[in-house]
Amino acid sequence: KIPTDLIDLGENIRDVYTDYEEELYELGESIKQVGQLQPCTVYQKGDRYILKYGSRRFKACLKAEIPTVDCIISTEFKDEKERILTQAIENEHRKDMTDRERESYISELRKMGMSIEQIAHELKKSKGWISKSLKAYEQREKNADLLAGLQGEVDTATMYQFDKLSNEKLNEFIEEVKKEDNTSESLGIKVRKE
């Protein structure tokens, strides 16, 4: 048991959980009632601890003002590539990981010099799945201004299809969607029909 105020959040492939405030509250209340069923993993740095795994659990404990967190004390990641890969494997099968988060960490691994084959092997995914995620991330970055203000996150399958559309067609679809209901779902329907 480590005092909550001695733990700092480490780097994470997941985004800040601002969209999950209610879920964090519920998880914190559950931990208060039945205890922390799964410990967080931390490593020591000076007189403080840096979180490696379990940021959702830790944030729920913070929100619920739980004074201590059950932790396993581990070693620091040997490098940034190990951190990303380990967190990716831990998070990959969770339903609440967003497509954008997934695309982002795959892109980071690629920038670190890993081949598509190596990433696929480490994550136990197909090379096609990795390639599709990389192409979707590229399109998401390229079209960030166009997507600004759209309600909901555009999924990987839709982002991947952007590459097959002309700029004129893509602009036309986004303008139509913004006049209709301004949702990523509507954009996905239009793009996949094309």
Draw up the topology in text.
Layout: E1 2-3, E2 7-8, H1 21-34, E3 40-45, E4 48-53, H2 55-63, E5 68-69, E6 71-74, H3 80-91, H4 99-111, H5 116-123, H6 127-142, H7 144-147, H8 156-162, H9 167-179, H10 184-193
Keywords, separated by commas or semicolons:
globular, four-stranded mixed beta sheet, 194 residues, 6 strands, alpha/beta, 55% helix, 10 helices
3D architecture notes:
With 194 residues, this protein is of the alpha/beta class. It contains ten helices and six strands. The strands form two sheets. A four-stranded mixed beta sheet has the order 2-4-3-6. A two-stranded antiparallel ribbon has the order 1-5. The longest helix has 16 residues. The protein is globular, with a radius of gyration of 20 Å.
Side-by-side strand order of the widest sheet:
2-4-3-6
State which percent range the strand residues make up.
5-15%
Tell how many strands the DSSP assignment holds. Answer: 6
Q: Helicity range of the residues? A: 40-55%
How many helical elements? 10
| Mean pLDDT rating | 86
Query: In this structure, how is the largest beta sheet organized?
Result: 4 strands, mixed
**Spatial separation of the terminal alpha carbons:** 55 Å
**Cα Rg:** 20 Å
- SSE topology string: EEHEEHEEHHHHHHHH
Helix/strand-derived category reads alpha/beta
Low-confidence stretches: none
Morphology call: globular
